[in-house]
Give the backbone structure.
Amino acid sequence: MPYYELRKECFDYIDANHLDYNDLSGGFNFYGNRGFIELVNDGKIVGNERNRKYFIYSNISNLGDELIDELHDLNRWTAIRTFSKGSVFITIYKNTQNQ
């Protein structure tokens, strides 16, 4: 399944670009302590609040339509990087109202 490969690429990008985990949130299967989820990277915790500076979204995250619509609002969010393979994608959005 391409999800796991894309997830690794996404977090490699986050780490390589020194995005602060305190500014990072995500939908289902992204939030939480990566140490518990991946059994590595303990202490790198992704929140689930949507008012942080960055939000990780995937089409397999099963988010509500309201949040998906909000992420596509260019006045609030900008896609800074998308990772995709086949029909699966993961996008990191930057909150333009939370600088």
Observations:
- Residues 9 and 63 are 21 Å apart (CA to CA).
